[in-house]
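Hello,

Our lab assistant flagged a job as stuck in the queue for most of the afternoon. It eventually completed. Since we weren't sure the result was trustworthy after the delay, we are filing this so someone can double-check. Below is the sequence as submitted and the structure that was eventually returned. Let us know if re-running is recommended.
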Amino acid sequence: MEHARAAAPSRLLLLATVLVVAANLRPAITVVGPLIERIGSDTGMSAVSLGVLGAAPVFTFAVVSPFVHLLGRRWGMERAIFIALLVLTVGTLLRALPAVPYTLFAGTVLLAAAIGVTNVLVPIIVKRDFPDRVPMMTGAYTASLTAVASVASGVAVPLADSIGWQYALASTALLSLIAAALWSTRLARRDRTSAHVSAAPASAPAQKERSVWTSGLAWQVTLFFGFQSSIFYFFLTWMASIHTYQGYSERTAGYSVAAFQAIGIVATLVIGRIMQRMADHRMVAVGLGTGMGVGVLGMILFPAVMPLWAVICGLSSTATLMLSMTMISLRANSGEQAAQLSGMAQGLGYIIGGVLPVLGGNLFEVTGSWLPPLYAALVVIAIYTTVGYFAGRNVQIPPAGPRR
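-- returned structure --
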């Protein structure tokens, strides 16, 4: 026991590795939005094709997520994340190759699969390593995710002006290489700990877990995650285009997309602390949904101050993402169930999440206006706010027994 405790990673190392991995969960994706019109112009891709490109990561998450807990069980979560970081690097670099749009889509799918693995495993790592600080730690890693993603959006256009958009897309590979190097120290320590523990006598068999697929609460968490993801990826893909449609420059639009994400850092840290003191999160879900609705209504009614509405939407959207990830950890009653719920919520959730970016591109191409997609966004916001009210209850999925 003492040897295992000595070999186990320190709390500071656990924190640092979680944050650096979280920093890689969005930049490779968020760098695309500000460059979407330039990519379309250079490649001849239509708005529909660009919408598919924007939604490709989300649909890839949906395919990968349900199987990640099996991968984590077979390889171990530390090793699975390490391999995912290496695959993320390869996929990101693949997008810099000249055979577009083939390499562009292939690289996007590959990097998204790697991110999908990490998306599922990070909440489980948090629940395992910080069981008494789940909301605060979820807020911290969401802030890390958001901060780096916003920087990637903000520098995308200036970087593309300097070295070309393909190399701008490939630039985030440096982040995943750094993360893999840092994560490898945790991997080595965890392997030593696991080897020692595996030599110990077997403990009593764990209580049989109930399938999350039969739980009403799990479905509420899944729908909340899915519909809030749909709004996030809709704006990630099209916010820059909505700005340029209203007469803003490409560079200003890129800065606005960066602000949409960066301002969420404040929201996640504040909301994380608030949630740490609360057992029931229903009013948090309603408040964040209301804020998002105000931001979208502002875009429709007062587009002259579009950057203001981008900031308001950013505050609400990033905090809602953090809330959905927290729900995955808190609504499960064990680490194994958290793995199953994370796979379910992100698997089905990202199928839902990919619909609005594609629908938005189609509606704009048919109507020539961004108003119909924004009205569709309002409907989605109303749905996830309602579902979030029920998913925010202070209950957990029971290990066995009647449905809840």
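-- support follow-up --
The delay was a queue issue, not a problem with the job. The result is valid. The radius of gyration is 21 Å. DSSP finds 18 helices and no strands in the chain.
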